[in-house]
Amino acid sequence: MTAAIAPPEASRDDTVLDISGLVRHFTGPAGTVRAVDGVSLSIGRGEIVGLVGESGSGKSTVGRCAVRLDRPTAGSVTINGRDVTRLSKRALRPLRKDFHLVFQDPSSSLDPRMTVGAIVAQPLRLHRLASGDALRDRVATLLAQVGLRPELARRRPHELSGGQRQRVSIARALSVDPQLLVADEPTSALDVSVQASVLNLLVDLQRERHFGCLFITHDLAAVEYLADRIAVMYLGQLVEQAPAAELFADPKHPYTQALLSAAPVPNPAAQRSRARIVLSGELPSPLDPPGGCRFHTRCPLAVDRCRTEPPALRRLAEGGGRQVSCHLVADDGTAPDAAAPCPVTINRP
Ligand SMILES: Nc1ncnc2c1ncn2[C@@H]1O[C@H](COP(=O)(O)OP(=O)(O)OP(=O)(O)O)[C@@H](O)[C@H]1O
Ligand SMILES: [Mg+2]
Questions:
Q1: Which residue, of 78, 229, 277, 332, is most buried by count of CB atoms within 10 Å of its CB?
Q2: Which H helix or E strand runs over 201?
Q3: Among 39, 55, 61, which is best to mutate for testing ligand 1, by the most ligand atoms less than 8 A from CB?
Q4: What pTM was computed for the model?
Q5: pLDDT at position 268, please?
Q6: How far apart are the CA of 3 and the centre of ligand 2, in A?
Q7: Angle, nearest 10°, between helix axes 116-126 and 132-145?
């Protein structure tokens, strides 16, 4: 195969990932699961975007579509200015080195029959980027960069600890210097005692190499620490997106407020001043999402309009370019507090 690597069409701007109107529905015997229903998100070079939301909200589906492990029902995914949504597998192959996914569970994503060295070397071989001594050197350097001793190259995945295995999958993902890394809960399968070191490793490598990163997690403390921007997902849609510091300081969407109120904060004074918002019920089924605002069935602030009219994701008049989809948040950013809902609505004639 002599596929030439196309020049990056988007060198004029700094966007490495642009997801636009992404829809992914799964149709089965029970009906259509609307896992992702119109998500737009972009990531710049060197930027870490955190994607958070309850289990089942569609985060992994967005991540899988972003690296073309899954194909969207509608919408588009553009990586480095190339629309990869409808490229054939063959056309995609030379581009694959630009984007990688690090999975939650490294054991399932590493071939147990291969040695660590062969696993890390594989993408470099596939893309014919190195061979022979140069390849061996690259692998040794990569292992050192992820903090693994060189002799581990001869071991197989089952001989390593969980944290070491995840370091191997990070080394493999970064071996070809990707522009985009999607990390889907990369530490949640690991022992708590090694989670921080693997997170720190990812952050250090990202600062050094400036790849764009979509970081999917349940760990709000982790995204607060490492993400530049955070996108909050609820039932297949984004409800809020803002620079990390702004989102944590002043969440606008009632769902974001609830999500953050349930997370431990390092500062006890802040914890005391922040009332815990307990959402009623479970995430509704994506087989039959509520009409109007999808969050209205659990929102302590919902009014009639929320039950009938789906709110659009709007950009607020704030410097950071925050986006919110809630009827109750004003364009100037004035937002109600879901922890202190006003139970009485006075309708004047
Ligand atoms: N291949 C599939 N076939 C059918 N339904 C699917 C498929 N993949 C995902 N889903 C459904 O799509 C919805 C979103 O799933 P997804 O895995 O993206 O959520 P998530 O936010 O990553 O959850 P978690 O935090 O638990 O990892 C869920 O209801 C899930 O059951
Ligand atoms: Mg997931």
A1: 229
A2: helix 192-209
A3: 61
A4: 0.90
A5: 56
A6: 33
A7: 120
